[in-house]
Amino acid sequence: MTSNLSALLYLISGILFILALRGLSSPETSRRGNFFGISGMAIAIIVTFLSIDILFNGLLFIICALIIGGFIGTIFAYKISMTAMPQLVAGFHSLVGLAAVLVALSAFYNPETFDLGTVNNIKTANLIEMSIGASIGAITFTGSIIAFLKLQGLMSSAPIVFKGQHFINLLIGIGIVFLIIYLTAEQNNQIFWTLIIISCLIGVLLIIPIGGADMPVVISMLNSYSGWAAAGIGFTLENTALIITGALVGSSGAILSYIMCKGMNRSFFSVILGGFGGTDLTLQKNKDKKPVKNGNAEDAAFLMKNASSVIIVPGYGMAVAQAQHALKEMADNLKKNGVKVSYAIHPVAGRMPGHMNVLLAEANVPYDEVFEQENINNEFANTDVAFVIGANDVTNPVAKTDPKSSIYGMPILDVEKSKSVLFVKRSLSPGYAGIDNELFYRDNTLMLFADAKKMTEDIVKNLN
Amino acid sequence: MEIDPFIFRLSIFVLSIFVGYYVVWSVTPSLHTPLMSVTNAISSVIIVGAIVAASGLDSENSFDLSNILGLVAITLAAINIFGGFLVTQRMLKMYKKKKKGKVK
């Protein structure tokens, strides 16, 4: 295959990737979009096979590697529970990062294969692109592993901060730039490896100070990094498909990070610098004094049955308790009683963008009953019951009233405006932001202390 | 003076960032999780680099380090491609519209 033809076909596969993302603008077109994505990938892989000289044995090994990887990937895709989606995505990011590092290393050791010059005599431009790709890839790799460990609960989600952290990060950052420049002057393996190792190190250092509540930002950010790493390699290999994809993924992750930061009213930098959440216990000293109204499943069922409209506000707690199916049953039951049921999703509910929507979709909740914050927030004032299940900080009115609060200015769901609020929660403990929710102590709030799933099931029993 | 081909690639890159920017803003928030998994899958198009890296097997059938790195990279990228696309498909299948009339 001539290189012009293959370049054109790579362009087509890039366009198919754009269409894949475009398809996600609505659930109806999304499946076709995914098909475009798969076709684009198939074209890219086939074109690559046709444009290289390869011996039969080499081909055999490559096919084996493809099959092994494909098999593992397929198992993950079908076995993973929807609750664990954030971990899976973080794990996948780390693989993209590592693959980028390996390809860059391979090109460094054997530049002839890629037409980049000869060993220790790689063209400067290619060398810079290659080292940037490798460096970002390494950061993505270790950063995603830390994110994975935190999300999977193998590592505490509390931020790890120590003195001089930012200074060390800064030094390493400067070190990376310096090493890349040094590498262009003197190409040797040690420098390239040092570059990769300190990039791995900074990947860890960047993610450990970020607390559990900021995970949606972290995971979007790593998504973005994996794109930039791919683009860096794309420049080295002079491959259009890779450049286009890298740019798409990079900007996609950046936009998601932005949306997540906005959802929390936090600046991107304050998230990166970390140290937020989990430790700020001073604000809730006087919580024992205030009385709360404590209800049970029977009260909740009675309240909702006699309501004309109910808005369900799910949060991460619903995911942990796997309560989405019970919740759907409850909603169906209410609908049979003529109650209007809708769902309100806060942008940062859950551990990754859109996490709640997937869980509700899994439980067969029709997506046109599920609303984003800006589309439903005005409805709370006309709603009889707000049923908050596993959410906390995103409903806290303190965000509007107390400028001293760490979540002040965060856009919240106006749950407080509904006639009554039902709060399913295991205890009065604060959420990830580590602050007390004054909504618990309001007259129109009924606390339902229980596991989210069990409580919902009990409510269903009482509705029947 | 001739334009360096790098500039052409840079142009593609910059334009793609803009395309990405507008396309991603049009993605409905309820599909943000599938967006992440599908971007994950497509960024594994890095597999094309891995295939080239692994292809340099010489006539004596011996691998050098760079071939092995390429093979490992192929495996990793393949996990991502299959895992990413299939999990996206699995999720997208779950998104259903309200049925006309009564919900059972």
Give an overview of the whole structure.
The complex is a heterodimer of chains A (464) and B (104). Chain A has 17 helices and eight strands. With 464 residues, chain A is of the alpha/beta class. Chain B has 104 residues and is mainly alpha-helical. Chain B has helices at 5-25, 32-43, 47-54, 65-94. In chain B, helix 2 (32-43) packs antiparallel against helix 4 and helix 3 (47-54) runs antiparallel to helix 4.
Brief write-up:
The complex is a heterodimer of chains A (464) and B (104). With 464 residues, chain A is of the alpha/beta class.
Largest sheet of chain A: 6 strands, parallel
Instruction: Give the largest interface.
Output: A-B, 120 and 85 residues
Termini Cα gap of chain B: 71 Å
Oligomeric status of the shown chains? heterodimer
Proportion in helices of chain A: 55-70%
**Spatial extent as radius of gyration of chain A:** 25 Å
Query: What is the rounded distance between the termini of chain A?
Result: 68 Å
> What is the residue-mean pLDDT of chain A, rounded to a whole number?
88
